[in-house]
């Protein structure tokens, strides 16, 4: 997490022994729960910490250690401070998706909010009782479903941005549309989101919250400071110019009725402009608007026109930022200040103003469903696979029913199967989410019991003065809301009739849900308030905390355009934090869905640079942007109370990097007799996302170097794709070696012999692998290039499916003949193009294509509607289906290989699936009735709601994307690069992160000429992966891109 966040919410951390290997059953080390929990409890009490987050390696596959530690921690705290409220967040309950750092960040943020939720949620319930509303309490979640009061209190982060989700769903419901943008204009802000096939469009695989990357779902919403109460100011000397007017972001907020001009106030607002110029928002003016404006404050017609145009420009820019293509879109405008939107906007096909749009948010809150989720690890077999999946679906249905859903309405909305690479045959992580309609009927006896206990709890709450004051305030606000509801009773009746017509439920009478224990929440209010007062004492501070780097803002467009990398007088590129950002973004795109997480490697490098700066006296620390996992150092510097056991604690404290920043050298500057080798990670990306590496790659390099006649001069990237592009930079920092601006693949490939060096006849051996336990294996020689792949891949499985690898030692003379030059520079250029496009609010996907100068192509923009995966020979193989709603999205796709059907590969995959029973051959085997209404089950040939022009692109992958097919045509294949990018951010989406519902853009980029030779095509062409197809290149490799050294290099 960034230091700016850890400084706000963290009182320290504990590294404890434990965790599981990739199979979910083998312990990395035994848990010492009682000892470590006692240490944590003492430190929490000493630091005044109000909550804790527990995160274990591979906890989604096996949560037993998290549960055991939480139990011991709770017991230790109660033993030391009886009656103290204990708030413990378990990471596996927040997200069942793999990704240790992302899950850890989500758990930490949730834990920091748990005390607040524990105080607030019971007061909501108490306010309902004060109003005589004896009903269960639900709170809207950020995925469009409802959370019980208890669930929202336990996991408050799941309510983030639920307001915009309500508006999007409510607006779509009122307008009767399935695909549109929704613009909700309130008193202070405007939120613009999209509804796609009836549901809010969600963000990509990872979402940043307070600068920390998390892996729970969030809506994709654009927000900016424009609302009915936004302040309007004019510059009198520039009345003739549009720039003479500013709108917001300051707002009068709830004081609009008293402050605005048309109500006799003295503040010009956006609502005044709409009323005075176009007689919009008439409810504000109870008399002729111009008459109500105080003398001398009435704006001129010219001023009003300038302000109106500024408002429309802000809205148009927001709509453009939320769009996924240049095509015009329908826009549904709702909210209390919907009148600020004119009758036409650029890029908008039509503007829809549904009846009751001012209460769209409330409507959206009233129609969400209740969800149940199950994440588990299964050993799927061909004989029992369907029964196993059915059992998981039933578990998810039971969870939804327990949360309050009607059983007969439950439908599967998400089903994800991720095979465990290198694991036991059929080992698969299964994620199922079920949603159903909220059941509103309750048995009379249960309702009476709830009311009785709630009354008793309310009486107890009244004894606490502070809580009573909060309850009275909440009750007053609720009473005002009730009055508003009564005024719109006819509107709600209309909504009921609309909902009755829309729902397609069975005729069976609904079954009552389990009774929510609202009274128990009421009883907690008094003790929570008192306990929070004791826990809110200041945390201990330390003078050493001042050495931590101050958080820096994201670079502006001007800063990006003016930035120049630093090339030393020795010709070495001294990599900065911004350079790392750019290389990481570009390398992930070049990874074609594989290569491991560049983001994790980026965090490790940032931490190493921070540690190097601190070791040098902190002179450079203020220049280093803390975006990584630096919480370990900062937490220890803030308080030394929390310490713990870790398998590498002694080594990590003593190993300081030899360089203060990574160094990259030009290939032409590499001496002829210098020795170089490639280095990177080997294994399953899903494993490395959980089981973070430390010094395995450095250990492999040292073992390989010891087998060479003289020391290494520099390092090489094995592949420029994904995290393996950054790993040599981290190893180089530690060992004091520069990295050559080149790699051996020009992208990412799944097997070792698919390197340009092996293709050219350079031996891969000697090669070394090292694991996290200290095991190192050296392979001195190999009979052929295929043998290192076979031997070392098997060793990788035994060593935990994640090892460091060093191979292909060669001289500088050989390297210049066989490597792909300028690879890191290419990644930097791509990353800078994406970052600059984001800063300019432009399309990052188009920016990447522009960089390639017409050599690349956009194949498709669409939504992932199906994913199948299976394991074969240690690789995750499968395919994804991406649907486009409009035919023009795919019109530009030409037939690269008319005779290539890919049928041989497809048949081979299906035969393998039937033979080993290790994967998903056809997801349509799930009961179709259980898929959410209005959508086809994954595996079907179409999606409900699609027009007849809907088309699909199918991408086959083996760790990396291999082939893109449109119908029977192959429209792109290896060695060219098939890249799936998030359509909004331009971030690459890895094959292990592809899931139903993601909105992606698929690019086809040209491979380097070294990968297009006849010899190379035998190893990395379509035939090498089982496709009976002829390779036709997408276009020439861009020759106009200069290396960073060539563009910015200066010699002393």
TrEMBL record:
S-Me-THD-like C-terminal domain: residues covered: 785-1034
Database matches in Pfam families: Hydantoinase_A, S-Me-THD_C, S-Me-THD_N
Compositionally skewed regions (Polar residues) per UniProt: 620-647, 893-904
Record field: compositional bias (Low complexity): 516-557
Region (Disordered): 499-557, 615-658, 893-919
S-Me-THD N-terminal domain mapped to chain residues: 579-612, 663-780
The Hydantoinase A/oxoprolinase domain, residue ranges: 103-368
UniProt xrefs under InterPro entries: ATPase_NBD, Hydantoinase_A, Oxoprolinase-like, S-Me-THD-like_C, S-Me-THD_C_sf, S-Me-THD_N, S-Me-THD_N_sf
Signal peptide residues on this chain, from the entry's feature table: none
UniProt GO MF annotations: hydrolase activity
Domain of life where this protein originates: Eukaryota
PANTHER family: 5-OXOPROLINASE RELATED, HYDANTOINASE_OXOPROLINASE
Listed name of the protein: Uncharacterized protein
The species this protein was found in: Tetradesmus obliquus (Green alga)
